[in-house]
Automatic annotation (TrEMBL):
PANTHER family: V-SET AND TRANSMEMBRANE DOMAIN-CONTAINING PROTEIN (PTHR12207), V-SET AND TRANSMEMBRANE DOMAIN-CONTAINING PROTEIN 2-LIKE PROTEIN (PTHR12207:SF31). It comes from Ataeniobius toweri. It comes from the Eukaryota. This is Ig-like domain-containing protein. Gene3D superfamilies: Immunoglobulins (2.60.40.10). Keywords: Disulfide bond, Immunoglobulin domain, Signal. Residues 1-125 form the Ig-like domain. The keyword Disulfide bond applies.
Length: 320
């Protein structure tokens, strides 16, 4: 059998995450006997690595003469999940389609079509094979950007009041399936040691760095890219600067793991109030979180008094 191949892109992405569709057309087929079949295999050649001219070639997958999908390559997971598809749309036309592209999908593509005939003994044998010219597919890969803006929603003007802060995230060139990890961070004075108060994962799991005050701390997602932090019962030790440290994650499918796309910190907002006489900070601790009937649990209440004192004028701590 003799034939020629034409490889064209019927759909090209303008940015990462958009689809690719390539069409491999078999034309001028001659001397393909009755019962003869065509199969196809697709190959991808990645773009050269930075600073080198080396190309790495990978087999994507193939369809045999009976239309069976064969794949034991790095693309197998994407083929099995349906994000990547190989198909025959007419007797002489084969298609390769990516529903959502990744940056590594840029490069050169080629299709190899094989003709299979039935021998006089009834066996199916390969009679001819032709390879297309390579087709380059690439697009602009703009760097992902992430900007975070924090603002005070509820100002704590006295000890014991509630402080609330919101953080709004704006992204560009990251993709459609985005998740955010948010860390609420603070420092008593600018330039001093920073500490993480609590965090929220891309799967909306909250963690506290200080479980003893977990009932006073709330971090929640209030919008697609908005988060709110609340600190109830502010104490003198809470005075300082607060901000959001946000990491944007992305993935192609629900079952895949998150990958880091970009990171950024918001501006800082402050908790500051004037002392009017002594101020108190109280922490309760227990040596057990659960007990059986008749068992004994020990609880301690730590009271810290700060500010002016009629007797000493200094801060002191009492435990009872």
């Amino acid at each position: 059998p003799n034939f020629t191949l034409t490889l064209e892109a019927s759909m090209k992405p303008q940015k990462t995450g958009e689809p690719i569709e390539l069409s491999c057309d078999v034309t001028n087929v001659s001397q393909l006997p009755p019962g003869g079949r065509l199969g196809v295999s697709w190959e991808h050649i990645s773009l050269p690595d930075e600073g080198t001219n080396a190309h790495s070639s990978k087999l994507i997958g193939s369809l045999d003469g009976y239309g069976n999908l064969l794949s034991d390559s790095a693309y197998k997971d994407r083929l099995d999940s349906g994000v990547l598809g190989l198909s025959r749309v007419s007797p002489n036309t084969f298609k390769l389609r990516f529903l959502r592209t990744q940056k590594i999908d840029m490069g050169q593509y080629g299709c190899t079509v094989s003709a299979w005939t039935v021998s006089s003994q009834g066996d199916v044998v390969k009679a001819a094979e032709y390879k297309s010219s390579p087709l380059t597919v690439r697009w602009d890969t703009k760097s992902p950007t992430l900007n975070v803006a924090a603002k005070t929603i509820r100002k704590a003007s006295v000890g014991g009041a509630t402080f609330e802060m919101s953080c709004t995230v704006v992204t560009e060139n990251i993709g459609d399936w985005i998740g955010f990890a948010v860390n609420i961070q603070s420092q008593e004075k600018l330039g001093e040691t920073m500490k993480t108060i609590m965090s929220l994962s891309p799967d909306n799991v909250v963690q506290h760095s200080n479980p003893e005050r977990s009932d006073n701390l709330v971090l929640s997602k209030t919008g697609a890219a908005e988060f709110q932090f609340r600190l109830a019962g502010v104490q003198l030790s809470d005075k300082g600067y607060y901000w959001c440290n946000v990491t944007a994650f992305t993935k192609q499918q629900a079952e895949q793991s998150w990958t880091v796309a970009a990171r950024s910190e918001s501006n800082k907002v402050s908790i500051d109030f004037q002392e009017n006489g002594p101020s108190f900070s109280i922490i309760i601790r227990s040596d057990a979180s659960s007990v059986y009937p008749w068992e004994t649990a020990k609880m301690e209440c730590f009271l810290t008094v700060s500010g002016s004192s009629p007797k000493s004028g200094t801060a002191h701590t009492q435990t009872g």
